[in-house]
Amino acid sequence: MTTITVSPLEEKVSQLEPVASPARPSTRSDNTQYGLKFVGAAVSNMVASAVSNPLDIIKVRQQLRTQTPGARANAFWSVGLQMARTEGISSLMGGFTASMLREIVYSGLRLGSYEYFKDKIYTASNGALTKEGLGLKVVAASIAAAIGSALANPADLVKVRMQAYYPEGRPYRNTPHAFASIWREGGLRSLYRGVDATTVRGIVLSTSQICSYDQVKQVLKRRGILEEGIGLHLTASLFAGLVCSITSNPVDVVKVRLMTDKNRQLNGVLDCIKKIIVNEGPLAFFKGFGMCWGRLGTHTIVSFIAFERIRLLFGIDPM
């Protein structure tokens, strides 16, 4: 008796038209796609940082204040109005150039190389990790964020220094002058002040932001709640913005304190944490949370929507 095996129609179509397969929608090489993803991630996050810079600088000012948590003088509207009155409206765009440089390196790598590491780790795991699983996403995001945040520390430090308040007047004329001044303080070591807190913060923020966005998109699409498009991107990014704000604010407070500690009064991350708890209480780790959420929420929405649109423009699959 002869047995005839009939392949499903979908399988035949996928064999005849591999370019139309969801796994391979583009004729571009993998390396070209990874390069374009880096460019898309950098550009989209630069746009998001430009939009959210005023919120970012208010958040930094709040985190540097040491009065009782919840005091009205530390409310975001109070800080913003005081800056506008005493330093001018332009002060809300402090550290803008350094912020753009930071995004090219930091976000270009943490978001742009996320899928590169995701693909490579998936292949190396020989099926032990699934592409839909949260474990693979966390590992990939952690590696990408660690590299990006560590390399971007000098630009991050300059940005924070230029956004801080100096009663005696601004010590830096512009971004190049800030880099040169900090270099004179102690060379490369000064530019990498707080790199441990920066890296930890980058990992915490990126894993919570990128992984939650990726996971929420996946769940909403799988359950047929939303289809690929602006509505899905907005919903996933709203959720991701809240999650990463909650997880990253405490580390961000420590990072900002260390980066602005020019007189070396803090002896590293643990000493900074100890002094904040003793002098200000545990709630101090959530100073500036309103602005952190406002800034990160805005940044997350703008960056992911822009990233998805740029990918579409480049002919690359949605994230």
From TrEMBL:
It is found in: Membrane. It is a multi-pass membrane protein. It comes from the Eukaryota. Its main location: membrane. Keywords: Membrane, Repeat, Transmembrane, Transmembrane helix, Transport. InterPro entries: MCP_dom_sf, MCP_transmembrane, Mito_Metabolite_Transporter. Solcar repeats lie at residues 32-120, 132-219, 228-313. The keyword Membrane applies. It holds the Pfam family Mito_carr. Belongs to the mitochondrial carrier (TC 2.A.29) family. This is Mitochondrial carrier.
